[in-house]
Amino acid sequence: MPTVQPGLTVKSLAEIAWLVSRVGNPLIESQIAPSASAMRDFWQTTRELQRRWDDFLADEPLKMSQDTTRFAEVAAELFSTELLVRVWSTVLGRLDQNSGRDDLTRISRNAVSGLLQIRNRLLSQLLDSPASTGTWGADLDRLRRRCDRWTDLLIGNVCGKDELVTFAFDPERARDFAEDVHDSESFAHPVELLVAAGVRLSFLGQLPEVTLESPAFEKLVKSILASIPVRAFDENGSLREQFLPMRDESPVGRTDDVLLPGISLTALRRRFSN
Asked: Residue 256 pLDDT more than 50?
């Protein structure tokens, strides 16, 4: 199992979601299914996080205190976790779709459903709070919409021609993006380059600096990265060309360490190294 260096933040979860979207199609095409232990850890950690957030919300923190800081941090944790879980669940669903099974999809559906219940409780408390009418409430809602939008965009990259958009927040939005992906298959990564640039400029840079203190976040990340074969990476941490979807050769289509400014696969592999 990979070991995780300390210092995970909500941005780390977004980085891993992007990585899953990047390697998802080759995983699906190769029918590389997660191990039983990886799926067990995925399920258990999502449940552990749900219980943690459920306990926090049970005290109705916005009624007990005027300090909204911790509530905003929990919201950021939840929204970024949903981003990662829904993108990974789409990959798992497509693996099931190709194999004719339902095991991975069932686990994913339960994980997503549990997180959605927590989201609904959190948003209900937010709407019932006087604080929601101010700038703070608007900022939190903006973060939610931004995470939801990027979830659907990343899902569109891996939902396939059969358009498995079960785990998207807005299925039509995911389908629209999937069409762009399919239309660009004969070119050299135009949509992937757009996504990569957008992840850094329009998404990662807008996420708050919230440190993920619970060990469950590390276990969640490891359960997903454990399902990406080591052979997918060169020794320097970059993705191997033969593991990526086939494209026409082009200088901008070549894989190097920095697939987009600010996100280095070497750094990711170092953080989540074997």
From this structure: no
Neighbours of 217 (CB within 10 A): 24
Rounded Cα–Cα distance for residues 35 and 263 (Å) = 27
Q: How far is it, in rounded angstroms, from Cα 72 to Cα 136?
A: 9
For the chain, how many residues are written? Answer: 274
Look up residue 173 and give its amino acid: R
**Look-up of token digits 């999502």:** 46
Inter-residue contact 174 to 109 (CB < 8 Å): no
Q: d(Cα 221, Cα 42) in Å, to the nearest integer?
A: 8
Taking the C-alpha atoms of residue 187 and residue 84, their distance in angstroms, rounded to an integer, is 27
> Is a pLDDT exceeding 90 seen at residue 238?
no
Q: How far apart are CA 256 and CA 211, in angstroms?
A: 29
Average pLDDT, the chain: 80
Domain ranges of the chain: 10-271
Residue written as tokens 């850094």?
Answer: 200
CA angle 42, 239, 18 (to 5 degrees): 50
CA-based torsion, 81, 86, 88, 93: positive or negative: positive
Question: How much is the pLDDT for 2?
Answer: 36
What value does the mean pLDDT take over residues 201-213?
81
Mean predicted confidence (pLDDT) in 95-120: 95
The helix (H) or strand (E) run that includes residue 136 is helix 135-158
Rounded distance, CA 155 to CA 267, Å? Answer: 24
Tell me the per-residue pLDDT of 145-179, one tens digit each, with 9 for 90 and over.
999 999 999 999 898 877 899 999 999 999 988 88
CA distance readout (Å), 158 to 98, 117, 164? 13, 25, 8
